[in-house]
Automatic annotation (TrEMBL):
TM segment ranges: none
Domain of life: Bacteria
Protein name (database record): Glycosyltransferase 2-like domain-containing protein
GO terms, molecular function: glycosyltransferase activity
Amino acid sequence: MAMPKVLIIIVTWNKEEYVLNLLKSLQNIEYQRASMKIVVVDNASTDTTVESIKALYKDVTLLCNEENLGGTGGFNTGLKWASEQPAGSFDYLWLLDNDVVVNRYALIELVELLESTPDAAVAGSTMMQQDYPWRINEVGSFYNRNTGELVFNLHLTTIHPWKGRAVEEMLDTKCDLSHFIPDYHPSLDVDYVAAASLLIRSDVAAKAGLWLDCFIHFDDVEWCLRISEMGYRVLVSCRSLIWHMSAVVKVPTWVVYYDCRNALTVLKKYAKDKKNVARAVRRQLYKATFLKMIGRCELADLVLDAVDDYRKGRMGRKDDICLPPVKSHHQQLLSELPFMDPNIKKILVSWHVNLHATKIQEKLVKTVRERPDITIDFLTFPGGDAVYQFPGANMVAISMNRMLRMIQYYRLRGKYDLVIQSDYKRVLFLSWLDSKIMFLNNENYCLRSAPTFLEMLGFLKNSIFKRLFAGGSR
């Protein structure tokens, strides 16, 4: 018997290796080939993505945009193409991120879930992490209509029996995560499922219309909320699995703008109380203040731009984002890193920095061997045990008591030439030790200086207070 017809829509931009891995995993899924069609929307990639797909997957339909329209524009291109096909061509549309790989049973489990649940229009896969294949990224998500924040369901939950297994081993495994999670069922209702793997009835997709022009982020959130308000259920399956690179390793740069602007736009549309929108705007302004205080001035400016553009109703791609260049510590030689600067003789490392994940441990060890005049100190977690990541590490204990901790930070002022902070979890007071700050993530780093007291006063007066009193949720 013929299976329901599914159109698979993938959007890609300059991720040739990723999209080819995804297409490879799709060749092995448990579904009738005659009932599947794959469309790849290319957002004007400058690598050889298009040529490779043409050469390796001749049955894949390629839709090439003339410019990068983001995830939003890419999926809208695919949705428009689907709507132009003869009536009845497809029963379902399966939207996939280009940097996922899918379990062999991912599609059939989603189809069977919607086939057996007529009042549901959307079903999404459980998203696992590619870098830690036994760890859940999200089993769908919930949306806080008071704050506009997403609550990732079961985020970072570990499936202990899978520990140590590679993604490749898991792709052909038929599994039901509800067996590993107490009191869980094979599927559940959620507010939204990510378009990393989202199956929707084609007729409902046509009724719902195209995505809100977010460029990236929150577009799939708004679509799911819109479909829910049309009276349909949104489900997530514990039996349909995909693996996606975890967001924690993604570098927080220009994406900050879209996260802020789009979150405010979606909240304005779906908030329970419009006063919550004004509060959300204020929270973004407080965030900009924090970013300015720790020395990430360029990110603070992005948040301010996002608030301004939200109030003006500007959507789509922002073309004038200008950020200072970052440097890859993987590609740089030791001599090119700031550790070898003769003016830097004392380094302080935050407890949030993972020397192994950032792959910087070996270079720090070599620095100490080549420069006997340098000292590297490591802060302990406040009130916690020392985490040793470095041979011969000198640990600086930090108190759990907030007042004592402030005094300790004050006494550290002027004692260090360089402070290394995690770009994922920054500590405000470490940016005010009268030293250079190295913000380090798993891919690259940047060097910054904390603003002076007078600079902060000017920022508050000219950038924050002006916007705080600009009014409400506009």
